[in-house]
Amino acid sequence: MSASTTGTRQIAMVLDLNKCIGCQTCAVACKSLWCKDEGTDYQWWCTVNTMPGRGTPKDYEEMGGGYKDSIPVRGIAPSREDFGGGWKFNHSEVFFDGNPEHKPLRVAGEQPQWGPNWDEDQGAGEYPNSYFYYMPRLCNFCTHAACVDACPRGAMAKRSSDGIVVRDEDRCRGYQFCAEACPYKKIYFNYELKISQHCIGCIPRLEQGVAPACARQCPGRLVFVGYLDDEDGPIHKLVNEWKVALPLHPEYETLPNVYYIPPLAPAPFNEDGSVNEAGSRIPPEHLESQFGPGVHDAIDTLKTEVEKARSGEASGLMDLLIAYNWQDLFPDFTRDPIDITWD
User: Fold this and answer.
1) In the structure, what pLDDT confidence band is assigned to residue 8 with cuts at 50, 70 and 90?
2) Which has the closest alpha carbon to 139: 160, 158, 161, 117?
3) What are the backbone dihedrals phi and psi of residue 25, each rounded to the nearest 5 degrees, phi first?
4) 3-86+114-339: which CATH architecture?
5) How many CA atoms lie within 13 A of 204 on its CB side?
6) β-strand partners of 304
7) Would the CA dihedral through 286, 289, 291, 295 be positive or negative?
8) Euclidean distance between CA atoms 292 and 286, whole angstroms
9) Fewest Cβ atoms nearer than 10 Å: which of 18, 91, 175, 337?
10) How far apart are CA 69 and CA 78, in angstroms?
11) Per-residue pLDDT reduced to its tens digit, 76-103
């Protein structure tokens, strides 16, 4: 058995894409907590991309990694330019130089060619049937973590207590084999410290009963956090009972533990301007390319339960997804961080 599959419990997330408004609050919460130090200027461990889109790093889905029939797939490590971001702005000129002439905020130096969510809100399709949706992405806490298997230094491991993938930065030598192996390309290289870095699921918060920053700060209540084996928790119900929460790109064979409720969309218009209630504005083949063939049954279940709720019938799934009480999103992690004395 691989070292990355020996965990006894597994923290997982479910993100309801039908609630995401692309506000980037999760990204900013993560950035302000974890990516303020030397060499992390361009790092955004949590990003919210517009789909369909090229994502971040740019075209990550074409960079390889993961497994095929349990055999590692050769991948490449994204470059700094693939990620973009971390630019310098003329803050001094605008805010501190005392020049009475208005100076707009702009990038100082070379103009950027890409960055996180560079293609925001562009989407696909043609008017009046254009479409897009937002997709937050972070480390997937994979059960079969390709990054762990790829590290020759033993610097990466899955914690048995919660399945979070962690890194010993003292052992890391910056080879970036982990970044090559990760098919989701959510591992960043710190060019100042010469080590790789990635999301650790806000471990210090989890250990104190506090939800990760991205989940706790989300104004849309779209992020569920819990243990996958907790049959009374929302994660198990959405993934294993209702089967409406699906992993991103299951074909990578890493068994990710971040799941998504696939997006619904308004019905498309026919050429005469009438509404095609039986149609789908987001092409089913696109959703299958993201979430696998199980997405069709998941969409059918979602639509069925939505109609039940609209007609006044009870729907346990809709009650769960609406999350009338925010504590229901992560029942094991509702402690207020203000009540904790952090070391």
Assistant:
1) confident
2) 158
3) -60, -40
4) 2-Layer Sandwich (3.30)
5) 8
6) none
7) positive
8) 10
9) 91
10) 24
11) 999 999 999 888 899 888 888 877 677 8
Q: SS3 string of the chain? A: CCHHHCCCCCEEEEEECCCCCCCCHHHHHHHHHHCCCCCCCCCCCCEEEEECCCCCCCCHHHCCCCEECCEECCCCCCCHHHHCCCCCECHHHHHHCCCCCCCCCCECCCCCCCCCCCCCCCCECCCCCCECEEEEECCCCCCCCHHHHHCCCCCEEECCCCCCEEECCCCCCCCCHHHHHCCCCCEEEECCCCEEEECCCCHHHHCCCECCHHHHCCCCCCEEEEECCCCCCHHHHHHHHCCCCEECCHHHCCCCCEEEECCCCCCCECCCCCECCCCCCCCHHHHHHHHCCCHHHHHHHHHHHHHHHHCCCCCHHHHHHHCCCHHHHCCCCECCHHHCCCC
Token pair in block for residue 297: 């049954």
